[in-house]
């Protein structure tokens, strides 16, 4: 039996880490293939992307759809449970924008907004 001492621990275990939030952010916008995610999530290695996708799938936040074709095609999308994170991720984006404005000197940081 796993013991948690607060609800935030559960949340961070499921969506915490460097990459899960970013992968979910892009998948909430619509289904993506692995290569699309690799291009969108800058600096992630192929190995880490696959591991992240597997963990999110195991958590029930995303689903994997295989198409029976040559070459093989795999597409990832959010489940209903994963889609329920959209308002939370949007709030985190807004918080990050406010934080950047308040703490970074002008020209110190650039946030490139990708609406893919």
UniProtKB/TrEMBL annotation:
Pfam families for the chain: HxlR (PF01638)
Q: Which PROSITE patterns match?
A: HTH_HXLR (PS51118)
Transcription as UniProt keyword = yes
Which UniProt keyword terms apply here? DNA-binding, Transcription, Transcription regulation
Q: Transmembrane segments in this chain: where?
A: none
Q: In what residue span(s) does the HTH hxlR-type domain sit?
A: 6-104
Cross-referenced InterPro entries: HTH_HxlR (IPR002577), WH-like_DNA-bd_sf (IPR036388), WH_DNA-bd_sf (IPR036390)
Q: GO MF terms on file?
A: DNA binding
What protein am I looking at? HxlR family transcriptional regulator
- List the source organism: Paenibacillus monticola
């Amino acid at each position: 039996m796993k013991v948690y001492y607060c609800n935030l621990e559960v949340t961070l275990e499921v969506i915490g880490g460097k990459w899960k939030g970013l992968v979910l952010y892009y998948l909430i916008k619509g289904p993506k293939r692995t290569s699309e995610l690799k291009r969108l999530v800058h600096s992630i290695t192929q190995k880490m992307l696959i591991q992240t996708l597997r963990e999110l799938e195991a958590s029930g936040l995303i689903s994997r759809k295989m198409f029976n074709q040559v070459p093989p095609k795999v597409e990832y999308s959010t489940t209903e449970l994963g889609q329920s994170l959209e308002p939370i991720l949007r709030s985190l984006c807004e918080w990050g924008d406010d934080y950047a404005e308040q703490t970074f000197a002008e020209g110190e940081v650039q946030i490139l907004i990708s609406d893919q």
